[in-house]
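PROTOCOL LOG
Step 1. Enter all chains and additional molecules of the complex.
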Amino acid sequence: MSDTKYAHLIDLNDYPVEWWNKVITLGASIYAHPQRYVQACAGKIMATLFYEPSTRTQMSFQSAMIRLGGSIIGFDNPMSSSVSKGENLKDTTKVVSSYSDILIIRHPMAGSAKAAALTADCCVVNAGDGGHLHPTQTLTDMLTLHMEKGRLDNLTVGLCGDLLYGRTVHSLCKALSRYPNNRFVLISSPELRLPEYIRKLLKDSGCEYREEPSLDRAIGDLDVLYMTRIQRERFQSEAEYLAQKDIYRLTPEKMLRAKPDLAVLHPLPRVDEIAVPVDADPRALYFKQAHYGMYVRMALILRLLEATEQVPIVHGTENGTMCCVNPKCICAQEKYLPQRFFAQGDHTVCDFCEERALERAMP
Ligand code: NCD
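Step 2. Run joint prediction.
Step 3. Record the structure below.
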C-alpha cells in the first residue's frame, strides 16, 4: 500500500538512487549560484515541528526556506504548543499541515514522521525520528562527500561511536550501501553496535563490512571517518551512558595515522569525541558539512514542492496476530495508529520503527 497525495521524505530508501543524486546535484548548483533561487519558494510556508532539541537541522531548514523566498512557522519546544495540553501527533499534524506547504518534523519516537505523513495535508519531511532515521542529515553527508571527495562510491567508511542509537549512522549506512564498492568499518563497543536490521541490510546489499572495536587500528584504512556523539538521551539509565561516554576520542595523534585525504565528518553536536585541536586539521570537514546541509535542504524543499511524481512511501500490511514490542516506537505512544508490519527475511518487522515484531500472545 502506498500514499499518493503529497511527496514526503520519510526514508531515503523510499526513493530511487537517481532521485537522491538529483537532489545532491541541485544542492551543489544552489551552492554555486544561490542568487538564482532567491524567489523560488515565494508565497510558500514551511512549518517546523521540533519535539526534540536541534540547532543545525532546524535552523538550516529555516534558513533554507528563507533563502528561497518562503516563510516559516513552527515550534521548537512542544511544551509551548498544545502538545502540553495532551494533543496527539495526528491532530497537531492535521492542523499545522493545513497552514503550510511543507512540514519538517523531529520527534523522539521511531516512526513518528511516517505516522505524521498518514494524516498530513502537505509534504512531510523526517528531520529525525528517535534513534531510527535522519534522511536529511544523510543528504547533507552525501553532498559533503560529493563536493569534497568527488564521489559516493569506492569509499572505505568508518563509523565510530554510538552506532546503536545514532540515527544519522543508520540512514547513512542505508544510503551508501546502494553505491558500488563502498566498504564499512563499524567502530563501536559491543553494547553500541549497529542494530541487527542495518547489519542485515549491509549484508543483503553485498557490502563488505567488519566490526572493529579499535579506532586506532581502523583509522589508517579509511577514506571517510564518521564520528558520532554517544546519544545520552536514548539510554535506559545514566549509568549505562557513563560506561560508554569516553570510549572514543579522535585526537591529533590519532590523525597522524590517517590517510592524507581522509574526510572526517560528524553530524554535530560534538561533545568530547573529537578533541578541539583536530578542528585545525584540513581533513576535519564537519563545519563545512553543516554548511552544505543548508544547500541540500534548499534543494530538497524545491524538489518536494515541485514534485508531480507519486509519493513512494511504502506501508506494510495490517496484521492482528503480530505486535510491535519496541517501547520507543511511535505506535506505543499513539494508540490509534494502524498496526502494520512487513516481512524482512525470515522475520516480521514493524512498519514504523523497523524493529522485529512478535506474535501476539493468544488469550
Ligand atoms: C544529529 C541528530 O539529531 O541525530 N544531529 C543533527 O541533526 N545534526 C546527531 C546527534 O544529535 O548526535
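Step 4. Note key features.
The CA atoms of residues 167 and 339 lie 23 Å apart.
Residues 2-134+291-305 form a domain with the Rossmann fold fold (CATH 3.40.50.1370).
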